[in-house]
């Protein structure tokens, strides 16, 4: 029972990390075309 809960928590964390990477990547791509450095600071705030 305990190991199954650990597997579920790890899979949820993995999904959360991948979603965060995708969002940060898309924000970084859009920020490079417009206002790169300022948006990059916002991305770093959201990542923390």
What labels would you give this structure?
92% helix, elongated, membrane, transmembrane, transmembrane helix
Task: Describe this structure as you would to a colleague.
The protein is mainly alpha-helical and 48 residues long. The chain has a domain at 19-48. 92% of the residues lie in helices and 0% in strands. It has 2 helices and no strands. It has helices spanning 2-33, 36-47. Helix 1 (2-33) runs antiparallel to helix 2. It is elongated, with a radius of gyration of 15 Å. The model has no long low-confidence stretch (mean pLDDT 75). The chain crosses the membrane at residues 6-28. Keywords: Membrane, Transmembrane, Transmembrane helix.
Compact summary:
Keywords: Membrane, Transmembrane, Transmembrane helix. This protein has 48 residues and is mostly helical.
Set down the secondary structure blueprint:
Layout: H1 2-33, H2 36-47
Radius of gyration: 15 Å
What do the pLDDT scores average to?
Answer: 75
Question: Share of helix among residues?
Answer: over 70%
Low-confidence parts, pLDDT < 50 over ≥5 residues?
none
Tell me, what's the shape?
A: elongated
Query: Element order, helices and strands?
Result: HH
The number of distinct helices, counting runs of at least 4 residues, comes to 2
Approximately what portion of the residues adopt beta-strand conformation?
under 5%
Structural class designation:
mainly alpha
How far apart the termini lie comes to 32 Å
The profile of the biggest β sheet is:
none
Keywords: Membrane, Transmembrane, Transmembrane helix
Transmembrane segments: 6-28
């Amino acid at each position: 029972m305990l190991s199954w809960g650990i597997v579920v928590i790890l899979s949820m964390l993995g999904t959360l990390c991948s979603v965060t990477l995708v969002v940060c990547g898309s924000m970084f791509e859009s920020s490079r075309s417009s206002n790169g450095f300022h948006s990059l600071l916002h991305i770093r705030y959201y990542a923390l």
